[in-house]
Amino acid sequence: MTALVLIEVENGRVRQASRSAIAAASHFGDVDVLLLGEAPAEAASRLSGIRRALHAPSLKHALAEQAAALLAGLAGSYSHILSAASSTGKNILPRLAGLLDVQPISDVVAIKDESTFVRPIYAGNALATVQSSDSVKIMTIRSSSFDPVSEDGNEAAIETLETPADDGKSRFVKLEQSQSDRPELEVARVVISGGKGLKDASNFHTLLEPVADRLGAAIGASRAAVDSGFAPNEMQVGQTGKVVAPELYIATGLSGAIQHLAGMKDSRVIVAINIDPEAPIFKVADYGMVGDLFEILPALAKAL
Amino acid sequence: MKVLVPVKRVVDYNIKPRVAADGSGVETQGVKMSMNPFDEIALEEALRLREKGQADEVVAVTIGPQVAQDVLRTAMAMGADRAILIQTDAEVEPRAVSSLLKAVVEKEQPGLVSMGKQAIDDDMNATGQMLAARLGWPQGTFASRVEIADGRVEVAREVDGGTETVSLSLPAVITADLRLNEPRYASLPNIMKARKKPLETIEAGSLGVDLTPHLKIVSVAEPPERKAGIIVETVEELVQKLKTEAKVI
Amino acid sequence: MTQPQSDNTAIEREEMAFDVVIVGGGPAGLTAAIRLKQKNPDLSVCLLEKGSEVGAHIVSGAVLEPTTLAELFPDWKERGAPLDTPVSSEKLLFLTEKAALPVPALHLLMPQMDNRGNYVISLGAFCRWLGEQAEALGVEIYPGFAGADLFIEDGRVCGVITGDMGVNRKGEEKPDYMPGMILRASQTILAEGARGSLSKKAMNTFDLRKGADPQTFGLGIKEVWEIPAEKHRPGFVQHSFGWPLDTHTYGGAFLYHFGKNLVSYGFITALDYRNPWLSPFEEMQRTKQHPAFREHFEGGRRIIYGARAISEGGVQSLPHPVFPGGVLTGDCAGFLNMPKIKGIHTSMKSGIIAAEAVMEAIQTEQAEASSYMERLKSSWLWKELHAARNIRPAFSHWGMLGGALYSGIDSMIFRGQAPWTLRHRHADNETLIPAEKAPRISYPKADGKLTFNRAESVFLSNLSHDEDQPVHLKVQDMATWKNTNLARFAAPESRYCPAGVYETSETDELVINAQNCVHCKSCDIKDPDQNINWCTPEGSSGPNYPSGM
Ligand SMILES: Cc1cc2nc3c(=O)[nH]c(=O)nc-3n(C[C@H](O)[C@H](O)[C@H](O)COP(=O)(O)OP(=O)(O)OC[C@H]3O[C@@H](n4cnc5c(N)ncnc54)[C@H](O)[C@@H]3O)c2cc1C
Ligand SMILES: Cc1cc2nc3c(=O)[nH]c(=O)nc-3n(C[C@H](O)[C@H](O)[C@H](O)COP(=O)(O)OP(=O)(O)OC[C@H]3O[C@@H](n4cnc5c(N)ncnc54)[C@H](O)[C@@H]3O)c2cc1C
Ligand code: SF4
Prior knowledge:
- Chain A: Keywords: Electron transport, Transport.
- Chain A: It comes from Bombella mellum.
- The complex is a heterotrimer.
- By secondary structure, chain A is α/β, with parallel strands linked by helices.
- Helices cover 24% and strands 29% of the residues of chain A.
- Chain A has helices at residues 16-25, 42-45, 64-74, 87-100, 201-215, 223-227, 258-261, 293-303, and strands at 2-7, 9-10, 13-14, 30-36, 52-56, 80-84, 105-108, 110-113, 116-121, 126-132, 137-141, 157-160, 170-177, 190-194, 218-221, 248-252, 269-274, 287-290.
- In chain A, a hairpin with a 4-residue loop joins strand 9 and strand 10.
- In chain A, helix 3 packs across helix 4 (87-100) and helix 5 (201-215) packs parallel to helix 8 (293-303).
- The radius of gyration of chain A is 20 Å and the shape is elongated.
- Chain B is an alpha/beta fold.
- Chain B has helices at 37-51, 69-78, 94-108, 127-135, 188-194, 235-245; strands at 2-6, 9-11, 33-35, 57-64, 82-87, 112-116, 139-149, 152-159, 162-169, 172-176, 199-203, 215-221, 230-231.
- Chain B has a 9-stranded mixed beta sheet with strand order 9-8-7-10-6-1-4-5-11, with helices on both faces. In chain B, strands 2-3 form a two-stranded antiparallel sheet.
- In chain B, helix 2 (69-78) crosses helix 5 and helix 3 (94-108) packs across helix 4.
- Chain B is globular and about 65 Å long.
- The termini of chain B are far apart.
- Chain C folds into 3 domains: 16-63 and 126-212 and 319-388, FAD/NAD(P)-binding domain; 82-121 and 215-311, 2-Layer Sandwich (D-Amino Acid Oxidase, Chain A, domain 2); 428-442 and 453-534, Alpha-Beta Plaits (2-Layer Sandwich).
- Chain C is 27% helix and 23% strand.
- Chain C has 15 helices and 24 strands.
- In chain C, the strands form 6 sheets. In chain C, strands 1, 2, 8, 9, 10, 13, 19 and 20 form an 8-stranded mixed beta sheet that branches. In chain C, strands 6-5-15-16-17-14-18 form a 7-stranded mixed beta sheet, with helices on one face. In chain C, strands 3-7-4 form a 3-stranded antiparallel beta sheet, with no helix packed on it.
- In chain C, a hairpin with a 5-residue loop joins strand 11 (165-167) and strand 12.
- Chain C is globular.
- The two termini of chain C are 42 Å apart.
- Chains in contact: A-B, A-C, B-C.
- Chain A binds chain C through residues 278, 280, 283, and chain C through 455-456, 459, 500, 513.
- One flavin-adenine dinucleotide is lined by residues 23-29, 48-51, 57-64, 123, 146-147, 191-194, 196-198, 220, 222, 266, 268, 308, 310, 330-332, 336, 341-345, 347, 536 of chain C.
C-alpha cells in the first residue's frame, strides 16, 4: 500500500491541515505528497515521514480540472489518495473520484483499517463508519482529528511532474484574500467567535479584536454574522464553514444552532457569552456567562 | 439556454437527527423531509438567470423513490418549468447519482447544471464535482456569485483563504454555497399551479448505471455527548477558571 | 378584487375557488375530506394545515377506538393503517406520593376506561396515513399554510384567507413579501382542534356559544421515549389520577407502550386549576419519578416532546356547530369524550357527519348545512357524549375523590342516564385565586436523565420559526397584564406555558419568546383577562413532530 497526499502551501509553509492529512495517510504505508503550483518544493520534501515529494509547478492555481486530470494519471500507483478537507481538497478530490468512478469519502475523522473509516454525517449529529470497496480510496481528512506531522524532519526526493495540457475551459481570474496577522482559524489555539448578537461590523472589530489580541486568538463568525456582513465568509465556522477544534473556543452573541455546533463542538474548552440563558450554546459550554456582551467583552479584554 | 437543477430530498434542517437504536442509520421514517437547502439556492440562481433572460428553461431533477416527487413539486412551485424523477428505491451514493445525472444531461443537453454544494444528510460534497468530471465540463464549486457573459460563466467561489474567481466555458457545472442568494418561497398560488406542470418519471434501471454502493455503511453512532458545564457570574471568575481550572490561558 | 374582513382590506390577493375548504389536517378534517370525496369524487376539496406537513402539529395519546375508522374504511387493515399495537393489558392507578392503588374490576367500575379491542397508535402517523388516503382520493392538501382569517362576505363565510408571508417583526413587508390568498368555498369546514383560532372567530361572529356552558380545557404535555427492547410491553396501557395534583385539580398521567420500543407518556392538567403557582410541566415531570412510572423509563432515552390543549367540556359545552357557509368539527367544537380521554373516534365521526351535511347544503344550494345538528343528534356520537356528560363536571364540583365516587355511581347505577346534567360553571380563565392566597409549590430540580427542564424539552419539538415575523401571541394591553397577571397572579403564563414562551424581565416587563411556541393554545384559554390572543404565525412555523407523536 502506498498513499498520495495532495498538499497545500501557504506563505512558504505546508498548511497544518495538509500535515494532518499526511499523518492520516501514514496508516496506509509509504506516503508521497503532491504539491501544485510555484511554491518551492523544499518545504514539502522536509515533511517528516514522507517518501517522495511530487511537484507540478505549472498548475499555478490548483484548478480542479487540471489537478484532477494529473492525479488520475498518478492514481495507478497508489492505494489511497488523500488531502485535507479544505476547500482545495474538496474541489479536486471528488472530481478525481468522478474520473476514476470511485466513491470518495469526505471528512474522515478516524481510520479503522485500510478500507474502514469514520466520518460525520448530518452536521456532526451522527458518526458513520463506512467501508470502501474501491481499489483506490479517495478521501479528505478532518485536520482536527489527526496530529500534524512535523514540518522539519526529512529530506525526501523531489520529483517534478509534467502536467497535462490546459484546454482553457477553466481560467483563474483572481483571488481576494483578507489580510490578517492572526493565526489561521483551523489551527489557532484559541478562537473567539461572534454572532448576530454583535449587531454590526464595527462592533465585531471593536469588541472581539481586543480580546483576540490578548489571547493570540483567531476570529470566527456564525453564518448569521457573515450573512449580515459583519465578517467575511472565510471566517464562518460550522457545518458549511470551517471546522475547528481549538484548546479554547469563546462563543459570543451566537445562539449555537446545530449547524454552528457542527463546526466547533470538538473544541477542548468552550466558553459561551449570551444574554439568553436558554440559548442552546450553553448546553455545550464548559463555562457560560449570561449577560450583555457589550459589557462583558470590554471587561474581559481588560481582565486578561 | 436550459439549466438543469438536481435537487435532493433530505431530512428537514429543523429536525434534530436521531440515530436509530440499532445503529443502522439515522431515523428518516415519519420525519419531515424537504429540499436540501443548498439545492434551493441552486434553483433560485437558475430562476434568476431565466428572469434575466440568460436561460430559457429550468428543469429540476431528483433521484429517489416515488415520494421524492414532493421536492420536484416544490421546485416547480418555486418556478422550475418541469421536472424529472429518476425513480429508484435503492440508496444511491454520489458516485451513482453523478452517473445517473450524466445520463440526464446527455438527454436534456443543458447549457448549465446548477446544484447544491452538499446535501445536509450525508454532507459528502462530491456530486457536482463528480458530474463535471464525468462530463468533462469545467466546475465552479462553492459559488457565491455567478455571472454569465460571452459564452462563459464567471463564478466567485468561497475558499479557505477568501474568495476566488474563475471563468468557465459553457456548458459547466456550478455548485451553490449559502450566500449565493436567498431563495424565494413557494407561494400557495404557485404550489397550486405547480400541480399541473409536467413531471416525467424515468426508471433508474433503464439508464444502464450500476447503482451498487462502493461505500458501505457499517454502522452509525451518536457522537460522544458534551457535558454542560457551569455558569460563572463575573468576568473575574471566568478568567480565573480558565487559568486555574481549565488551564487554557 | 374583493374586500375581505378586518385588517385585510385593500390588499390585492389571488383567489382560488373550491367546493369545500377544510381548515386543519387532524383526524376531524382529514376524515371529512375523505368522506366528501368518497361520496362525491367531483367535489373540489382543499385542506389547509398550518404545520409543515400533515402530522407535524399533532399531539395525542393515543389509544384509538377503531369504530369510526371502520365506518370510513372497512378495509383499513388492507390499506395499511398504522394500527400496529392492540391494547394488551390495562391499569388505572390512584397515586399517593409513595404508593399506587390499582382500581379493581375496571371495566365494571369505569366502563369508559375499558380499552379492550382498542389500539395504541401514534396519531401523527395515523394522520399522515389519512392524508395519503385523502390525496389518493383527490383531496388537495396544502401543508405549511394556515387559515389566518375567515373570508366573510354579506354575513356569510365564503372561505378563508391564508396567512401573509414575508412580513417582518415590525409588521413591514420584507422583499419576499407575499400576501395571503383567498380560498373561496361554498362550504368551509373548521377542523382546527381544541381552541381553533378561526373557530373562535366564527363562534364570536355568529354567536354560536349562546346557551352553551363555557368550554373547559385540559393541557396535555407529552413525551415519547425509546426504551430497551427487553423492557417493552407492547399494548400496555396505564392511567393515573391523584398525586401529584391537589384535590381541586382534575388530571392525571397516561403511559402507553407501542410501536418499536416506544413509550408514550403524558400528563393532562385541567386548565380550570386554581393555584397560579401550579406548573403543568413540572407536574408531568415529577410524576415520572413515581415508582409506578419510573421503571418504565429506565435505560431509555427521550426522543420527542410536545403539548396540546384538549377540549373537556362535553355536550354541555358544545357550541351550535353550524354557521352561514360552514361548520365546526372535532375538538374545535368539543366532540371529545373526556371520561374516556378519547377524541379521535369522536372527531372523526363528527367529520363524517359534517361531510354529509355539507354535501347536502351544496346540493340544495343552502348557506347553512342545517341538517348537521339533526344528523349529529341521531348518531351514536351524541349518545356516547350524552352518557359521559356528568363525569368531568363532577370533578369540578366535588373535587378529585368526590368526582371519582360520582363517576362510579353514574356509570354503575345510572349508566350515564342520570336524569340531571351537571353544568360547567366557570370558564378556565376565571378560576385562578390570587397568588398570595395560594400555596406555593416547590418542584424538584430536573436531573437531566428522567426529568428535564423546559428549554431542553422544547428542543425535542424540532421547532422552526422565523424570528423576523410579527409576534403571533398578541397581548392586547400590557397594562392589563401588569395589573392582573403580574400583580394578582404572579405571571401564571410563565408557569403554564409548556414551552417557556413567557418570561418576566427584571424590570417587570412581559417577554414573549414567540419562536418557542408549540401551538398548544393554553395561553389563549387560561389568560385571566383574555388579554392574550393566539394568532396563526407564518405557515410551517411551530413544532415538527415526527411520527411517533
Ligand atoms: C444548510 C444550512 C447550513 C448552515 N451552516 C451554518 C454554518 O456553517 N455555520 C453557522 O454558524 N450557521 C449555519 N447555519 C445557520 C444556523 O442555522 C443559524 O441560523 C446561525 O448559526 C445563527 O447565527 P447566530 O447564532 O449568530 O444568530 P442568532 O441565532 O440570531 O443568535 C444571536 C444570539 O445572540 C444573542 N445576543 C443578542 N444580543 C446579545 C447581547 N447584547 N449580549 C449577548 N448575547 C446577545 C442572542 O441571545 C442569540 O442567542 C446553516 C443553516 C442552514 C440551513
Ligand atoms: C395529550 C393528549 C392525549 C390524548 N389522548 C387521546 C387518546 O388516547 N385517545 C383519543 O381518542 N384521543 C386522545 N386525545 C384527544 C385527541 O387527540 C383529539 O380529540 C383529536 O386529535 C382531535 O382531532 P381534531 O382533528 O379535532 O384536532 P387536532 O388533532 O388538534 O388537529 C387539528 C389540526 O388543525 C391544524 N390547524 C389548527 N388551526 C389551523 C389553522 N388556522 N390553519 C391551518 N391548520 C390549522 C392543526 O395544526 C392540527 O394539525 C388526546 C389529546 C391530547 C392532547
Ligand atoms: S405560547 Fe401559548 S400556545 Fe404557545 S406554547 Fe405557550 S401556552 Fe402554548
